[in-house]
Amino acid sequence: MKTFSFITCLLFVLALCLGAATATPAMAEDPAELAGRIQARYQKVRSLAADYTRSSSFVALAGQAGRRVQGSGKLIWARTLRLRLEQEKPRHELIITSQGRAWWLRPAKKRADLYPLDRFTSGLTPLLQALGGLASLDQDFLVSRPNAKQSGGGPEGALSLLLTPRQRRADLKQLVVWFDQDTLLLAGFKIINLVGDITVYRLQNVRSNVPVDDKLFSFDPPGDWRVVDHRPRRPAEREERQ
Known about the structure:
Layout lengths: L4 H10 L16 H12 L4 E11 L10 E11 L3 E8 L3 E6 L2 E6 L4 E6 L7 H8 L5 H4 E4 L14 E7 L8 E6 L6 E7 L5 E11 L17 E4 L5 H7 L1
Parallel strand pairs: 6-12
Antiparallel strand pairs: 1-2, 1-11, 2-3, 3-4, 4-5, 5-6, 7-8, 8-9, 9-10, 10-11
Helix pairs in contact: 1-3
């Protein structure tokens, strides 16, 4: 499931992207007030699209300490709880969430993995709820201002928030989110996991309230693909298969 760890944070930071707004200097605004202002304005956003680049550094990967991985792609989000994340490099992969399900698609292998949304990653459900405006950010996270080390790697002069999960999670220790100081457009974010691995995302060409087609959030597996269903089966279903 390590392949998915970035999704939790990616979905959450989309919840903070509001489009154009006037921002006050980072040092002059309380982090909780900034988070509240962002989320309140976000209620007007129905969809969002952006290009992304990703840089990951691993400190505890077995036999690969210090390894760095880069990637890029495009994302589209729409209310409620719908996300299409298409990685273009280094290899084509696609993740689609909708109707309580999450598809992980690998075209080169002709493989599709289907997960229940609430088990896709340990913290995805509350983050998706925040994305849809159904929960308060401080319900699941402690909101504070990052120090210089924590905010390192972000855009110069950007506004920033440090989000720490209130409950311990295997996939997330802290999340730093950066916003453009003048427009409040989301500029990027940094994921720090429990073992110290760091992934930095930068978003470009961020657009809000873009028209979306429902077909973007559905998937019908081709006949020659292998489909692995990871959803738990009901007792009656298990008995039928025995």
